[in-house]
Design a protein that fits this description.
By secondary structure, the protein is of the alpha+beta class. The protein has helices at about 5-60, 145, 150, 195-215, 220-225; strands at about 65-70, 75-80, 85-90, 100-110, 115-120, 125-135, 160, 175, 185-190. The chain is globular. The termini are far apart.
């Protein structure tokens, strides 16, 4: 075999190998897409079930709920799936009385984005429940924000009182160093999970500052819905 024939054979072999690799890549990509599409409905179903459970978890005494979408400074009741919108979930007791509103919020944690849900009681002007919807914080450390009883107790009656004009909070929710909490609007941090617990304080502070005045001003609207 002369040099020209040898080069031709090598080129053909390389081309065949490249074609094979590209073919395998395309097949793998197709399988990944099909697998994702096949499992997406179940994933969405599980997320919806987890959210439903969390809503009842963060609003004590809740029996039924209605979901609303924020539009400007007002809310509109929605049914079915809604994407790319700020949703809140109003909870009612067995007599149809409003007992709280569940709000979703998110922000950056130590490892990734944290998604949380908290319950706000407009009568008490306080956060009355808290639940972590999504977290990738370090097991044994950062994930204490989901299970540490002392930390979760912060959100059983976290002050979210409004100023006299009802447009702003009197005090912004903030995380403080473990053992130094002195005020009802402070979140007692977790030793060993400082960044994660501080992140929760930041998320809560930002969300309550924005949402609580709106929820309070619309509380009569929420209360009217069960009787309509």
């Amino acid at each position: 075999m002369n040099e020209a024939q040898k080069n031709t054979t090598e080129v053909a072999s390389s081309s065949k190998m490249l074609t094979t690799m590209v073919g395998i890549g395309v097949i793998c990509a197709l399988l990944i897409v099909l697998s994702f599409q096949g499992t997406l409905p179940r994933i969405e179903k599980l997320k919806a079930e987890a959210l439903e459970k969390a809503i009842f978890n963060v609003i004590p005494g809740m029996v039924t709920k209605k979901t609303f979408r924020l539009e400007g400074n007002h809310f509109k009741e929605v049914t079915g799936k809604v994407k790319d919108a700020q949703l809140v979930h109003a909870g009612y007791d067995k007599d149809g009385k409003l007992v709280g509103v569940a709000v979703e919020a998110s922000g950056m944690g130590f490892a990734d984005v944290l998604r949380i849900l908290y319950g706000y009681d407009p009568i008490k002007q306080a956060v009355v429940g808290f639940y972590v919807l999504e977290s990738k914080e370090t097991p044994g450390l950062g994930d204490k924000i989901e299970k540490d009883p002392a930390f979760l107790a912060n959100f059983e009656a976290l002050d979210a009182a409004l100023s006299e004009d009802k447009n702003t909070l009197k005090n912004t929710v903030v995380t403080v160093k473990h053992g130094t909490k002195k005020n009802a609007w402070e979140v007692d941090g977790i030793t060993g999970a400082t960044i994660s617990s501080r992140a929760i304080g930041n998320i809560m502070g930002s969300s309550t500052t924005q949402m609580v005045p709106l929820l309070y001003k619309n509380k009569d609207f929420f209360e009217e819905k069960p009787n309509q």
